[in-house]
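Researcher: Let's do a round of design. I'm pasting the structure tokens now; please hold your answer until I've finished.
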């Protein structure tokens, strides 16, 4: 079996991320990606046989890109969580991925691992064990709030991340 070319794969991911960043998740289509990369649509399918494969790869590529663009100083935990979980476009992206991997156990496991990684990062920032139940429930509640606000923009003001943390027995340093 021929191994896919990583540079072409990365070109596809970069083009797709560019479309998402400039035009939003709804604009992400195979014809647009093909045009942006100069490839035929059939090439996209070779590298990403299913839409879910592309979405999972985009999730990872998105985080890699964010890490490369990170400011010299680490943002506060509140700013980081707000950017990840209360940003409508990011939550739309996450929801699209969740819907795409709905029936695929292999991709569900990848997504689950990705979602769990955020709780590990938050736990480390709070000096808690990586598997702390309070941290997992805190992150899950924030994710739920983000999804709720995505589905109902009139839901009112977003709660304070610090207040949500306190409900879970966690304290975020100022």
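Researcher: That's everything. Go ahead.
Model: Designed sequence:
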């Amino acid at each position: 079996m021929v191994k896919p070319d990583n540079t072409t794969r990365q070109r596809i991911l970069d083009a797709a991320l560019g479309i998402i960043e400039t035009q939003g998740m709804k604009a992400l289509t195979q014809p647009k990606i093909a045009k942006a990369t100069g490839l035929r649509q059939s090439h996209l399918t070779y590298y990403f046989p299913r839409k879910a494969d592309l979405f999972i790869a985009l999730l990872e590529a998105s985080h890699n890109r964010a890490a490369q663009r990170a400011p010299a100083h680490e943002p506060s935990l509140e700013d980081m969580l707000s950017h990840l979980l209360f940003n409508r476009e990011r939550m739309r992206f996450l929801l699209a991925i969740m819907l795409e991997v709905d029936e695929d156990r292999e991709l569900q496991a990848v997504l689950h691992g990705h979602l769990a990684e955020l709780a590990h990062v938050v736990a480390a920032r709070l000096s808690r064990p990586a598997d702390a139940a309070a941290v997992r429930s805190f992150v899950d509640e924030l994710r739920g709030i983000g999804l709720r606000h995505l589905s109902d923009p009139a839901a009112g003001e977003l709660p304070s991340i610090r207040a949500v943390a306190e409900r879970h027995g966690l304290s975020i340093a100022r």
